[in-house]
Write a structure and sequence with these properties.
By secondary structure, the protein is an all-alpha fold. The protein is built from 5 helices and no strands. 20% of the residues are buried.
């Protein structure tokens, strides 16, 4: 059972990373101006942050308990707590900027939001990779 959760946790983490990189590339290339790509960005945001993210968190809690690491393991707490800003950025910056509009402000807010989400997920990956023994 441990191996199944470990692989689920790791593989879904890579899925979220890949989706957020794809989201960043679409926004960076100006694809957010097209309605079809705007819907794709919304779907990516839903799958990566709202659906798969909580599954990863649950698998991570299970692994934390199963491996027997101390409750005071700082890098795990930091990784879990970084998911909060990921959700906030998605809700306050990315989602509103995906609403139909030609505003340059929304375009800049969207690029900033997806960049912040990418930086957060890379930080989480860095913490997990550097400290997973």
């Amino acid at each position: 059972m441990y191996n199944a959760f470990h692989h689920t946790h790791k593989d879904l983490g890579y899925l979220v990373l890949a989706l957020l990189v794809l989201q960043f590339l679409i926004v960076l290339s100006g694809g957010s101006n097209k309605p079809v790509l705007r819907r794709a960005l919304d779907l990516i945001q839903t799958v990566a942050v709202r659906v798969v993210g909580p599954i990863i968190l649950l698998a991570g809690f299970y692994l934390w308990h199963k491996v027997g690491l101390s409750v005071g393991t700082w890098w795990i707490w930091v990784s879990f707590l970084l998911w909060g800003p990921m959700e906030i950025v998605g809700k306050r910056m990315v989602r509103p900027a995906l609403e139909p509009s030609d505003s340059e402000e929304k375009s800049g807010k969207l690029l900033l939001g997806v960049t912040l989400q990418l930086v957060i997920i890379i930080s989480i990956f860095g913490l997990m990779t550097a400290n997973a023994g």
